[in-house]
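Database export, one record per block. Field names are fixed; values are copied verbatim from the stored entry.
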Amino acid sequence: MKEKIIEKATDMFLKLGFKSITMDDIAGEMCISKKTIYKYFINKEVLIAESTQTMNRTVMEIINSIITKNFNPIEENFEIRRIFKGIFQSAETSPLYQLKKHYPEIYEKVVNTEFEECYKYLIQNVEKGIAEGYYRKGINVEHYSKMYYMLSFSINENIKSEKEARILELEALEYHTRAMATEKGIIELEKQLSNPNI
C-alpha cells in the first residue's frame, strides 16, 4: 500500500503541484481514508520527500536504460530529453521550481542527490563523444559537464512555467553541444534538431 500511495502522490504532485495537492486529495483519488495515508507517512512533507526519492530513482533508471541502447552521445542526450518531455508534459509549473519555493529543505536534498548522479552521466557522455569523434579533443570534460548541469538546473529551479523551461532546456542542450562539437557532431546535432518530436 505504501508504494501505491507514493506512486499516486507522485503522479498528482507532478500534474498539479506539490503545494496544491493535499492528503485529502490523495486519499480521495485512491478511495482510501486519510488515516491510511498517515499510517505510512507522518505528514505531507515526509510523503513529498519519499516521492522525490522515487522520482530521482526513476530518472536514473531511464538514463541508464537509454545508455544501454548505445546511441551516439548527441543522440543519447536528445533521447533522454524526449523521454523526460513525455513524463513532465502535463505539469504546468516546473517541479523543481515548486520544491525550491515551498519545500526548500527537501529541495536541497534533491539537488545534492541529483548533482552527484547526473554529473557522472554528463562526464561519461562527454568522454564518449570525444572518443567517437562527435566532441572536440582537448576540452575540459569536468568543466563542460559542470557548466551544462548548472545551466540546466538553473533553468528548472528558476523558471516557473514547465513549458518555458522545456524550450530553454532545448536551447541549453544545443548551446552545450555546439560548444563541444566537431564537424561530425554538428551534422548529428542538426539532424536531432530537425526531428519534430524534440
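Remark 1: The chain has ten helices and no strands.
Remark 2: Residues 99 and 107 are 5 Å apart (CA to CA).
End of record.
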